[in-house]
Amino acid sequence: MFELKTTFPENFLWGGAAAANQLEGASNVGGKGLSLADVYIFDENTPKKNWSDQWHLMTHKQIEEAQDPASEKYYPKRHGVDFYHHYKEDIALLAEMGFKAFRMSIAWTRIFPNGDELIPNEEGLAFYDRVFDELNKYGIEPIVTLSHYEMPLHLTTKYGGWVSRKVIDFFVRYATTVAERYKHKVKYWMTFNEINCVVHHQYVSLGVIEENHPNIEQAMFQGAHHQFVASALATKACKESNPQAMVGCMVSYQLLVPYSCDPDDVQATVDKQRTSLFFTDVQARGYYPAYTARMFAEKNIVLKTEPEDEQIMKDYPVDYVSFSYYMSGAVSAHPEKIEGAEGNLLTGGVKNPYLPSSDWGWQIDPKGLRTAINQLYDLYQKPVLVAENGLGALDVLQEGDVIEDDYRIDYLKEHIKQIKEAIADGVDVMGYTSWGCIDMVSAGTNQMSKRYGYIYVDQDDMGRGTKRRIKKKSFYWYKNVIATNGEQLD
Predict the structure, then answer these.
(1) Cβ neighbours of residue 29 under 8 Å, at least 6 residues apart?
(2) Cβ(253)–Cβ(372) below 8 Å
(3) What are the b/e assignments for 46-80, b being 16+ CB within 10 Å?
(4) Fewest CB within a 10 Å sphere: which of 107, 211, 328, 350?
(5) Against a cut of 0.85, is the pTM above it?
């Protein structure tokens, strides 16, 4: 009746993750249009600037300048690391590590360059046919995210982003197109990457320009509602194209703990954690949680909905829950009295004195991953996928093409140990796709020097370099982890 599981399942999806807007480059090739990510700049003369501010503070002026062909600014995500032309070489390296799965995204702007076209771009569709065929050649399952911070820019400038209900139809047309095209090549889908981040950075998540909205919280939750409906309809499209398909939701899950046993800290933690769980509640259960009424009333939010929305969300919940996990966070009801966590991008939490930090100030908490996995499984009783986890660090290329990234190995090893503990706890964990399996442009800071990969790419923050691919020490370590199904971590 009760079976203690002490090993990873035989069909465990070992692999890595990447995003088209950070990886592919070739933004002016094959009919691709501009995405939200294509307007982020990087300036090497101001390296200490918090470039992640662009995620939510993008202005009309910046967007207009980015569309000017004469602009001399550097837009890193238009270049990526040129996976578009290196995909065969890169996939061969993933296969050499023994990948069972590769979590990737389709660039919406390769399929519908402006987002509102009626006919898809065949060049874009053909590119992903080639990528999926290459993955299939090596027996690597693609896990495909439909929207990973790469919404067509045109849908922001013309329609105002996801605040407009019209965008639902555009997204569903896109989702239906790719679901039907790749129904024999893709089994695993995700709808929106880190959907809960609409609360933290409205521009990149929703295509919403803050200066247009005096009540930004009204805009963010209205946009989130439209994404919930679109996610359900995309799930329907994937299932109709391939009844064996599995469709998941994906959130950025930063486990939160009370800074102290003060009841006010405990309640503040519950309230703040709900900013993530709200999104999994809707997508995994198919309805808004009970606390929505109070939360909306206190924020003066009134959603505009259609009569069919409730039934659509109820009829098409997701099959699995996936999440990114990089750190935990401590929460205080009085954060102004306590030292803040410098790199805490999501919650603005306080510093946990028991945890070390990365080069970017992210507090490292492997045991928190076990807790997070258990929390999500206890809530929804659906398979869990650790879709992102990794360490951004300043890797040094030494003579002889040597990169000694023991710090990365230590980080990943300790987190994988905790996944194994969660499996022993009884959780159905589908797989582990660590973030940034190949170095690419950072999502938040737009740097290349913030590296996550097992594979080094010879390219600097301004895109200079040979783009040569070089195996790090962690490449060989992870290859052995996969070969032994997680039994040999040292």
Answers:
(1) 84
(2) yes
(3) eeeeebbebbbebeeebbeebeeeeeeebbbbbbb
(4) 211
(5) yes
* 194 is an active site residue: yes
Is the separation of the CB atoms in 469 and 90 below 8 Å? Answer: yes
The tokens for 393 are: 């660090």
pLDDT at 49: 46
pLDDT at position 54, please?
Answer: 58
Closest-CA residue to 273 (of 346, 217, 339): 346
Looking at residue 306, what DSSP letter applies?
-
- Ramachandran bin of 346, using left for φ above 0, alpha for ψ from -120 to 50, beta for the remaining angles: alpha
Task: Give per-residue pLDDT as tens, 273-305.
Answer: 998 899 999 999 999 999 999 999 999 999 999
pLDDT < 70 regions, the chain: 46-56, 339-348
- pLDDT reported for residue 350: 86
Kindly name the residue from 24, 134, 141, 194 that is annotated as catalytic.
Answer: 194
C-alpha to C-alpha distance for 74 and 64, rounded to whole angstroms:
15
Residue 430 near residue 423, CB atoms below 8 Å: no
CB-based burial of residue 362 (10 Å sphere; 0-12 exposed, 13-18 middle, 19+ buried)?
Answer: buried
Instruction: Identify the CATH number of the domain defined by range 13-483.
Output: 3.20.20.80
Report the chain's C-alpha Rg in angstroms. Answer: 21
To the query of whether residue 388 is one of the catalytic residues in this protein, the response is yes
Give me the phi and psi of 442, to 5 degrees please.
-65, 140
Q: Considering 388, 404, 421, 487, which one is annotated as catalytic?
A: 388
Rounded Cα distance, 209 and 216, in Å: 9
Torsion of Cα atoms, 427 then 143 then 199 then 38, to 10°: 160
Q: Where are the domains of the chain?
A: 13-483
